[in-house]
Amino acid sequence: MPRVVVRLPGRTCPIDIGSGNSDSLGERLRRVSSSSRGLIVADARAWRCHGGRLQAGLGRAGRGLAVVTVLPGERSKSLGQLERLYGALLRHEVGRDGLVVAVGGGVVGDLAGLAAAGWHRGIDLVMVPTTLLAQVDSAVGGKTAVNFGGVKNVIGAFHQPRFVLSDVGLLSTLADRDYRAGLAEVVKYGMIADAAFFARLERGVDRLLARDPALLVPVVTRCSRIKAAIVGRDEREAGERITLNFGHTLGHALEAAARGRLRHGEAVALGMRGAARLAEGLGWMTRSDRNRLESLLDRLGLPAAVRLAQPGVVIAKLKYDKKVRNRQPRFVLTRGVGSASVAPPINASRIRAVLADLIEA
Ligand code: GLY
Q1: pLDDT band at residue 8 under the 50/70/90 scheme
Q2: pLDDT tens digits, residue range 42-91?
Q3: Catalytic residues
Q4: Residue 355: exposed, middle, or buried by beta-carbon count in 10 A (0-12, 13-18, 19+)?
Q5: Which side of the chain, N or C, has fewer Cβ within a 10 Å radius?
Q6: CA-based angle 262:264:268, to the nearest 5?
Q7: SS3 letters for 302-330?
Q8: Is the CB–ligand 1 distance for residue 113 below 6 Å?
């Protein structure tokens, strides 16, 4: 079974990837945690689909774990839900040696991760990501957060999990739209770091869409390995980690303006299309490389435009991007396929023109 390790000073975080490997969750847990007292924080839908199997996989290690479910959707990443989790940790008398097991996608991982980061100044966290997006991105690297005042991820902490268990078998029950949205983050890794991987995705579209575990295991492994290496060099996002933000500058702004009508991955797909057009304008990408990206996103069924009633809102949302300096948005752009860096400031009219092509009024 593939294992990827995030190596940080004085700590490591293993990521086990397989198909059906959640059956051994209890055994895996016993190897890292002396206490089995804590909370399972689970996405309500994921728990309906997989809770029975995960409880069986936990076996005796699950006896001291109370289950709290969280409604799917970005609105659950709130201080209110965080307080609810702290209430549950208090009620179940979870001490400093306790743990939180997050079962779900990015929303649950971020929320449960922040609960674990704050409880007694930090207790053990285990991630069992149940979406493709979480397996390749949000469950890896230790970022946790909730949204506040309409600003995404503005209250958060870095808190590395003791381990991540990625079982691609759990992806079989994902809604088609959610699964495809996760593929956008997969494409991102090819674009920012690995041209050969990008070409493998181009060849494997049918098998990817069929959720073939024989392809998904190496794909999740490759994405996790790329992210683990970047996080190992730059955990706190002082530099290189920002390249993981490719497609996210325009993507986050479009996602916020669409008010829940775009999945995160769909917004990232739009953001990557926009970023590629900006890169082409700067001479960083050829037309043919941009076409390769757009054609792969098309074949994966990812959107090329979004309908927005108030397109002007998107520009206003850009000011909340974490990369803003001197009130100017900054973009991670790719140089061809397989390498990325932060671009020099881009003219506001150019940004507006690119956005106009991504928005249907
Ligand atoms: N999702 C981007 C990061 O973890 O840095």
Answers
A1: very high
A2: 999 999 999 999 999 999 999 999 999 999 999 999 999 999 999 999 99
A3: 121, 143, 185, 227, 237, 241, 245, 248, 252, 264
A4: buried
A5: C
A6: 100
A7: CCCCEECCCCHHHHHHHHHCCCCECCECC
A8: no
